[in-house]
Design a protein that fits this description.
The chain is of the alpha/beta class and 380 residues long. 26% of the residues lie in helices and 24% in strands. It starts with 13 loop residues before the first strand and ends in a 7-residue tail after the last strand. The structure holds zinc ion (2 copies).
């Protein structure tokens, strides 16, 4: 059980070891912070594993802004420790993964099947007390109201899916890169066996798209990345063809494989140029889906004639337009049957003390996902 830190006249707070961002561009510092108890509708989850996502790296380097001090991390698997009032779907001892997009299940977006666009998301994340404080009582920001690089998190019940006995090291990826990649295949772009697919960027999201497109039966899956190591793995996970844009002219090479262009392209890098490339690979009637987060103010340029005369489309899909609670059931089944390979996507496992090395290693040529393991459990 977790030890409680009791102060007079306040609810007890839970001491947790966490990796703290004090300023963009600085290394994370391991400190003890105090986590609030779960309140109405919330759940306390003991962290078992947390993935290092490129969005975290963007906050770490200052490409994206976050008020500091902050605890990053949003791709997390763990065990329910306790629940607040009104929580019915999960209970202590359940093994769960967390999504960054809690949803009310009742607003117009939710009931129309667009949970990632929930109109009450800020209400769900709003609290009377900060989730995290330092030991002096000053508030510390939690990325996405999660803050997964800590020994425990408190999140709304709707952000949780029960995953059973799946190894948390791989299961944590279901919370972000896999729900995003597979969500984009299933919902954002609705890939079918009639489709030909191009995937730009073979990191965690790209590899999830490749596997999702394979499961969906796409007739051709072309993977593009600048790293030969990633392209090798892309082929193992389902790519029919691989291309290195630093060696080949990407557009010419794709058109030589699929004359006329692909019917579905995906951008999983987070750069305007790769979004433009995704659009340029499309056949008439094709759809380009852009997933990578870009800095505010980024602009994407398109060939207007190709857009209009070819009925081509380009769309965003935040978190792949996933339907977390509906998608997880079938995804877990694919993981258990081996048709979705979770293990191959984890290229390194580290402990929390080595998290800065983990972020440095993300830039490595064959790194797909580095996962922080909290195997030792919560310090008492
Ligand atoms: Zn992420
Ligand atoms: Zn809603």
């Amino acid at each position: 059980m977790i030890a409680r830190h009791v102060e007079e006249d306040t609810m007890p707070r839970i001491p947790v070891c966490a990796a703290v961002l004090t300023a963009a561009g600085q290394s994370l510092r391991i400190e003890t912070l105090l986590l609030d108890e779960p309140r109405t509708g919330e759940v306390l989850v003991r962290t078992a594993a947390a993935g290092l996502c490129h969005s975290d790296l963007h906050y770490l380097t200052g490409v994206l802004d976050i008020p500091t001090p902050a605890v990053l991390g949003h791709e997390v698997a763990g065990v329910v420790e306790s629940v607040g009032d009104g929580v019915r779907r999960v209970k202590a001892g359940d093994r769960v993964v967390v999504t960054i997009t809690p949803s009310c299940g009742q607003c117009a977006s939710c009931v129309s099947g667009y949970a990632t666009r929930c109109e009450r998301v800020s209400e769900l994340r709003k609290r009377s007390e900060p989730l995290l404080t330092d030991t002096a009582g000053n508030a510390v920001t939690s990325l996405g109201a999660i803050g997964a690089f800590a020994e425990a998190v408190v999140v709304p019940e709707s952000a949780l899916a029960v995953v059973g006995d799946l190894d948390p090291i791989g299961a944590c990826l279901l919370g972000c890169c896999i729900s995003t990649g597979v969500g984009a295949v299933m919902h954002g772009a609705a890939v079918s066996p009639a489709d030909t697919v191009a995937v730009i960027g073979c990191g965690g999201v790209g590899m999830a798209i490749i596997q999702g497109a394979r499961i969906s039966g796409a007739s051709r899956i072309i993977a593009l990345d600048v790293s030969p190591g990633k392209l090798e793995l892309a082929r193992v996970l389902g790519a029919s063809d691989v291309l290195n844009p630093t060696v080949d002219n990407a557009r010419d090479a794709v058109l030589s494989i699929v004359p006329g262009g692909v019917t579905r392209s995906f951008e999983a890098v987070g750069r305007p140029e790769t979004a433009e490339l995704a659009f340029s690979l499309l056949a008439p009637g094709g759809v380009a889906t852009v997933l990578g987060l870009m800095p505010p103010g980024s602009r994407i340029g398109l060939d207007a004639v190709a857009l209009i005369e070819g009925d081509r489309r380009i769309q965003g899909a935040y978190m792949g337009s996933n339907r977390f609670l509906a998608d997880l059931g079938p995804l877990l089944e694919h993981c258990r049957r081996g048709s979705f390979d979770l293990d191959a996507m984890v290229t390194s496992v580290i402990d929390l003390e080595r998290i800065n090395e983990g972020f440095a290693a993300m830039r490595g040529p064959s790194s797909i996902r580095t996962v922080v393991s909290f195997a030792e459990g919560i310090a008492a």
